[in-house]
Amino acid sequence: MSPPRLTAGFWVAAYLRRLDLAGIPAFVTARGDETAGAVAVKVATLDGHARAYSRRWDLASDARRWEVLADGPEREVDALLSRERQRDPDLWLIEIEDRAGRSLLEEDGLSEG
Questions:
Q1: What angle (nearest 5°) sits at the alpha carbon of residue 62, between those of residues 60 and 64?
Q2: For residue 52, which of 103, 112, 108 has the smallest C-alpha distance?
Q3: pTM, full prediction
Q4: Which of 11, 33, 43, 73 has the smallest number of CB atoms closer than 10 Å to its CB?
């Protein structure tokens, strides 16, 4: 039996708290389905560049992992995320503003699951 999964809303709240504790500004720019919505994370480095992450199923490890969805000029990343949101209105969008490009997604508890 697999462990119970966190609801999307609970995960987002915990993630925002973790970012806040690290001094990394983050905002929910689109609320998705509270229970089962997917989550995308955009990291804006405040120099016109951004990177977006989404969770994908990794067949090799049989786990969900964060993968780069887009990386480039911020307006292009925004356009891609807008199209993703139109396709999936249950998608949560989190935006981080950090010159160093930190997301914490590689840390324990966030890196897979």
A1: 105
A2: 103
A3: 0.89
A4: 73
